[in-house]
Write a structure and sequence with these properties.
The complex is a heterodimer of chains A (about 525) and B (about 475). With about 525 residues, chain A is α+β, with helices and mostly antiparallel strands. Chain A has eight helices and 33 strands. Chain A is about 15% helix and about 35% strand. The longest helix of chain A has 16 residues. The chains are: A alpha+beta (about 525), B mainly beta (about 475). Chains A and B meet through β16, α8 and β23 of A and β8 and β9 of B.
Chain lengths: ~525, ~475
């Protein structure tokens, strides 16, 4: 407790200071400071009386949220406290009854700006808010005040009780981690990291779960960049998400939080190539960015969206399309049903509805990254084997090639290794729709795609021409997969339904759906109607 | 005040005269582009009937009528869209042929409506994996009808896809022939007058500075990253020995690696060019000025065109490079020279900045008919170098050794990115002999260095007729070989 003598000294000080001359007559805060504060805190803010009174220059108490300082001035402060690492025990007498709101704001603005480098201004309204907010008139105890207005501690880290789970898998989008079993779970100390958790460079995912401590009510602005996909959720609500495969590009999100503890969840996956995860937050307490990750790379600005719109005719575009092949040929229809043809695998790779394509990535900067399609969840055709083979037994295994040598060079086999040659495409002069051409051995194959917007389906027609001399049986494999079912020429596989028009369709014991090609005068045709759910 | 404005007026005049002297000899005119379109020019083709075609990095092809005439009357039409960043295009037999990222293609307008409808894949054997750096630059057909394609490394540093870091040829039958290895990041490719193939490669890993390099079947031109694909190239024989990763030079490694061909021209980084691109021969038979059969090489970063004079010495190409024309509007990528001497110059600076501030441009450069006073060519001799001029020099000045200075340096040949200039040497001009007609000077030079670029400064020379200084008074000669 403070002694009566000290209180007296303070009162004397106030009286003496009235006699001092002005150092900076212009600033009303300085004028008032000289009258009210200078006696204890000194003309330089360093505190007088041989260290009994604490400094208010370069003091953590004056930094950060101005409300804390307003509370001290209005209600006073007593008891033990620490300033700049030194202990004090003195009474800061309440000034609320003596000074009006404007004067309190002026003094604090002067002290904070001149001696503490703080830009944020205390306002009359803030002072009034402080007066209204507190029921008690008694001076604050330091520890109580700090509970409400903690120091903007440069070492403060808002995550506690952090756990990190490590997963393995090859994904193109963030998987539902809750359905997967982590390879490893461990407690984590700040800051969040990728390469301190794992040495893996590809095909893995991380989920961080923690308590997020909000020191003050207000808006929290998050900046996240991830390579590849990342998603930040707080209290189960997605705040920032940048899914898919891409380089580090900054994405932002904000939400309002009450003071207290919130559930923090950060999901991340890496497919291959570059990797990285950067997350920072601006809290209402401190307008500076506080990094939650060890990676503090400056990241690129978000890529602008450049929408490609098929209007009168179909649009054919060769760009890197997400979930297509690097050679993908995207076809957009005015009917708003679109697909990509993969000229490496000679089949469609994705189908989607709505808007067509965003060329923002390849058309800006150096053109890094793959084009996203305008669909939250396009239909992905997972079946990626080559479509044709000449078989001696209709149930025999689908051909494979010896990948040994190419694999040793870090390469994958190509269409050429399977005797396919892509031959290009031709556009219909009326509709602009392409017909694709390719050869398998000396069979000549062409494919057309017709969108049917009403039924939300895409009709793929294959025409096959056999050289006269060739008597080999040709097999078309529609799909293979454990979950595939076949009934009345109708295939069901996940989100897909395929209607097959062919002379014969059968399923092998290892779940391959095949059509033997029935040539009539060396010509044959298969029609596949794709329906999918997005 | 009056004095000051007079002075600044005079200063302005003198700078204008100086700055525009190149334009006295070669004009640059901006060709208006299709309105509202982003046309970052990546390829230019000359079409029948004085039409031209350009392909943009966004994958559009536009045709222009009137690009040779009054530029206010240029008319554009769209020929094709949706292609994949083409760098290399030519017209033949009614079709446009195109080297684009994933393949070499033939585009034809079958129904005659002015738009391509048939997009034929002639060859798609080289690999791409989605990395933006995996560019493909292609030539026009050589005398056998083959198109030469140089394939940038993955991310300019790796070889994740088939034949990255290689030059391949595509035959008229659509076969791909692995031809040469050692490529890093090309900016353009073309033929010299004899039909030999040269391409530009940018400073980076294994490239101490940017280079012009010579491609022939079996050449290894320096970057070993793609050499693993010798395993896929049965026609190429055994894989070359790898260069040492550091502390060596091209000249040292030539002795170790028999397939290694040193750069034909070193473009001194920061001094001359940072990102060389197109390679074009002046085959206009004098319509483009006095430099018949020489090469013109553009630079993307500095928006300029350089002039290159080559010679073959002891079976290896080398030669001199001179600054030729600065002041283009964007970062130059393709150039095409028409038979009438019009050089079409296309530009883009997306992703890589350029001195020319326009994001994209198409320009034409023409000779004004006046002959500038220039070093026409610089040839190595047994004892030094011979300089040939475009017009007679002032013999008294040219005879004085003091009016020549030469220094040389080389670059590290190393795994790391780029190189400082190393092993600086001064050369001594021991003797000067000016020819009777003043058209050439023989320099006897001591301390020439094989494997160095030799910078010759000729600031004091003037022409005998009109006392003009040299329009460009510095030559850089890359000396791989000295004649026996």
């Amino acid at each position: 407790m403070i002694s009566k003598a000290m209180q007296l000294r303070w009162v004397l000080g106030v009286l003496t200071c009235l006699a001092f001359g002005s150092l900076n007559a212009e600033h009303p805060g300085w004028v008032a400071y000289q009258k009210v504060c200078i006696v204890c805190h000194g003309p330089d803010g360093k505190g007088v009386a041989g260290g009994i009174f604490p400094p208010i220059k370069d003091s953590e108490w004056l930094k950060g949220d101005p409300e804390r300082s307003i509370h001290v001035v209005v209600f006073g402060l007593e008891g033990a406290l620490e300033v700049k690492g030194k202990s004090y025990n003195a009474l800061m007498p309440p000034q609320g009854a003596m000074l009006d709101n404007q004067t309190i704001a002026d003094i604090l603005n002067y002290v904070r700006a001149t001696w503490n480098g703080e830009k944020e201004v205390a306002t009359v309204a803030m002072v009034q808010k402080v007066r209204d907010a507190r029921k008690s008139e008694a001076p604050w105890q330091a520890d109580e005040l700090l509970k409400v207005y903690p120091m903007s501690d440069p070492n403060f880290f808002p995550l506690e009780n952090t756990m990190v789970s490590y997963y393995e898998g090859d994904w193109n989008k963030l998987p539902d981690f809750s359905q997967l079993k982590p390879k490893q779970v461990q407690e984590w100390k700040k800051p969040l990291s990728i390469d301190k958790v794992t040495k893996s460079k590809e095909h893995f995912g991380l989920v961080y779960e923690a308590d997020f401590i909000a020191q003050k009510e207000g808006f929290y602005n998050f900046d996240m960049a991830s390579d590849d996909g990342g998603r930040l959720s707080i209290n189960g609500k997605v705040v920032v998400e940048h899914d898919g495969i891409h380089p580090l590009v900054n994405h932002t999100g904000k939400l309002k939080l009450d003071r207290g503890v919130h559930k923090f969840r950060l999901e991340y996956f890496q497919k291959g190539g570059g990797q990285g995860l950067v997350l920072s937050v601006k809290t209402p307490l401190d307008k500076k960015s506080l990094y939650l990750t060890d990676n503090r790379l400056k990241v690129q600005e978000p890529v602008p969206v450049i929408e490609i719109k098929p209007e009168e005719k179909a649009i054919v575009m060769r760009q890197f399309v997400e979930n297509g092949d690097a050679r993908a040929i995207a076809v957009g229809h005015p009917e708003k049903l679109h697909f990509t043809f993969d000229p490496q695998r000679m089949q469609p790779a994705i189908m989607w509805s709505g808007n067509f394509l965003d060329a923002g990535k390849p058309w800006t900067g150096r053109g890094t990254g793959w084009n996203p399609v305008f669909s939250e969840k396009p239909g992905l055709l997972k079946f990626r084997q080559y479509p044709f083979a000449t078989l001696t037994d209709r149930n025999q295994a689908w051909p494979s090639v010896d990948e040994g040598m190419k694999a040793s060079l870090g390469l994958q086999s190509t269409a050429r290794d399977f005797d396919y040659r892509f031959k290009g495409y031709e556009l219909d002069s009326k509709t602009g729709r392409p017909t694709f051409f390719y050869n398998y051995k000396d069979f000549e194959i062409s494919e057309t795609y017709t969108p049917d917007a009403e039924k939300h389906q895409m009709i793929r027609k294959l025409s096959i021409k056999r050289p006269v001399s060739n008597e080999q049986t040709l097999m078309f494999q529609v799909i293979q997969g454990l979950e595939v079912s076949l009934k009345d020429h109708r295939v069901q596989d996940g989100c897909w339904q395929l209607q097959i028009q062919a002379a014969e369709v059968f399923m092998t014991s290892d779940h391959c759906v095949r059509c033997p090609i029935d040539f009539k005068q060396d010509q044959a045709e298969i029609v596949l109607t794709y329906q999918w759910e997005e | 005040m009056k004095f000051a404005s007079l002075m600044s007026f005079l200063l302005l005049c003198s700078t204008l005269v100086w700055a525009e002297s190149e334009s006295d000899y070669y004009s640059i005119e901006k060709i208006p582009l299709p309105e509202g379109e982003v046309v970052e020019v990546g390829s230019i083709a000359l079409m029948p009937d004085q039409n031209i075609a350009i392909a943009s990095r966004r994958g559009d092809i536009f045709m222009a009528q009137g690009a040779f005439g009054d530029l206010e009357k240029v008319k554009w039409s769209n020929y094709a869209s949706g292609l994949h960043e083409p760098f290399g295009m030519f017209y033949k037999d009614g079709s446009l042929f195109l080297t684009q990222r994933p393949e070499f293609s033939k585009l034809t307008d079958k129904d005659g409506d002015g738009k391509a409808d048939r997009f034929e894949t002639i060859n798609d054997q080289w690999g791409i994996n989605g990395d933006y750096h995996e560019y493909a630059f292609g030539t026009s057909p050589d005398k056998n009808g083959d198109v030469w394609v140089v394939l940038c490394l993955t991310g300019s540093a790796g070889a994740s896809s088939e034949f990255r870091g290689w030059c391949v040829r595509i035959t008229p039958e659509g076969e791909m022939i692995p031809t040469a290895s050692g490529i890093r990041s090309p900016g353009g490719i073309g033929f010299n007058f004899e039909g030999e193939v040269f391409y530009t490669d940018n400073q980076g890993l294994w490239n101490g500075t940017s280079h012009l390099k010579h491609l022939r079947q079996g050449h290894f031109v320096g970057n070993p990253t793609g050499n693993k694909f010798y395993a896929l190239a049965k026609n190429m024989g055994a894989q070359p020995v790898d260069p040492l990763p550091e502390d060596t030079t091209m000249q040292n490694e030539r002795a170790r690696i028999k397939e290694l061909v040193p750069p034909t021209i070193m473009f001194p980084h920061a001094k001359l060019a940072n990102s060389p691109t197109a390679v074009v021969t002046d085959d206009s038979q004098g319509k483009f000025g006095p430099y018949s059969n020489q090469l013109f090489v553009s630079d993307q970063t500095t928006s300029k065109v350089m002039r290159v004079d080559l010679e073959e010495v002891n079976g290896v190409y080398q030669g001199a490079v001179f600054l030729f024309r600065e002041g283009f509007s964007s970062g130059i990528v393709p150039m095409k020279l028409a038979a009438d001497g019009t050089m079409f110059v296309g530009g883009t600076n997306r992703g890589w900045g350029s001195t020319g501030k326009d994001p994209f441009a198409l320009e034409r450069m023409r000779w004004t008919g006046k002959i500038p006073f220039e070093v026409h060519s610089m040839k190595v001799t047994k004892a030094g170098f011979r300089l040939n001029f475009t017009m007679p020099v002032d013999k008294a000045i040219a005879q004085d050794k003091q009016n020549y200075s030469m220094k040389s340096w080389t670059y590290k040949y190393q795994k790391g990115y780029g190189s400082p200039e190393i092993d600086q040497q001064d050369q001594f001009i021991k003797g000067v002999m000016v020819s009777q007609d003043g058209m050439s000077v023989d320099l006897e030079v001591e301390n020439r260095q094989k494997g160095h670029v030799h910078e010759l400064s000729l600031k004091s020379l003037i022409s005998s007729n009109g006392n003009k200084p040299l329009l460009h008074s510095i030559a850089y000669y890359t000396l791989n070989e000295i004649p026996n």
